[in-house]
Structure to design on (231 residues):
């Protein structure tokens, strides 16, 4: 029944639709963030007609797959300080987390110019402050000497194998890295990539609600495993 409740909602979306879907993920939003989510969904649907932002078109699925799965992390980890979202695409999870946690300072990394234009439009329409949108890849950002972040998030990176050292470079010693992985991806990384366990200590993975195989992995830097910044 819970899964059906996430799908059988109205078009266009209304406030109660957002509230009910977020409840399935253990997330409670105040009225202003709910309004921002509604605006965000509308922009995503309109822009996706001409820009390849997401293959998901149904508003119920946008709420569940993008917003619900992104914001579920707030029921696992208390977010604060500075967060960088790697390969943010249409803004998930980073920009969604900014809506749910307005105090966050968020940096969004997205190399595709048209996607950056969309992100800027969401920031403008939803009146979000404390958001920086950058065109670098995380490997490039790690070489800039940027101030380390309290949180690094990555949900739809093409290949986690190649970015793990860069994620570690961008993370403060007391910070956390949060990865959205399938169980298959996680097992493959643990088996084939020494950096997965060598650079981070991982909490037990948390299954994402309403998903068959997706999990959230939260890790902390291993002490004594600093990664030298490239010059």
């Amino acid at each position: 029944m819970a899964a059906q409740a996430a799908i059988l909602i109205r078009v266009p979306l209304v406030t109660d639709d957002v509230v009910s879907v977020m409840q399935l993920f253990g997330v409670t939003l105040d009225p202003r963030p709910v309004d921002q989510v509604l605006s965000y969904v509308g922009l995503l649907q309109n822009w996706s007609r001409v820009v390849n932002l997401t293959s998901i078109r149904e508003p119920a699925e946008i709420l569940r797959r993008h917003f619900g799965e992104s914001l579920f992390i707030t029921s696992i980890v208390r977010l604060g300080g500075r967060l960088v979202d790697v390969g943010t695409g249409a803004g998930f999870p980073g920009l969604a987390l900014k809506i749910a946690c307005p105090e966050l300072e968020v940096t969004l990394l997205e190399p595709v110019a048209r996607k950056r234009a969309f992100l800027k439009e969401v920031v403008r329409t939803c009146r979000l402050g404390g958001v920086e949108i950058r065109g670098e890849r995380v490997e490039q950002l790690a070489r800039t000497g940027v101030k380390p972040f309290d949180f690094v998030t990555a949900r739809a990176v093409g290949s986690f194998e190649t970015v793990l050292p860069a994620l570690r470079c961008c993370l403060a010693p007391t910070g956390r890295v949060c990865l959205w992985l399938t169980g298959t991806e996680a097992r493959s990384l643990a088996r084939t990539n020494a950096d997965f366990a060598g650079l981070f200590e991982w909490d037990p993975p948390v299954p994402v609600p309403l998903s068959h195989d997706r999990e959230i992995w939260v890790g902390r830097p291993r002490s004594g495993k600093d990664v030298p910044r490239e010059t």
Remarks:
- The mean pLDDT is 91.
- The beta strands are 82-86, 105-109, 131-134, 149-154, 171-182, 200-202, 206-207, 214-221.
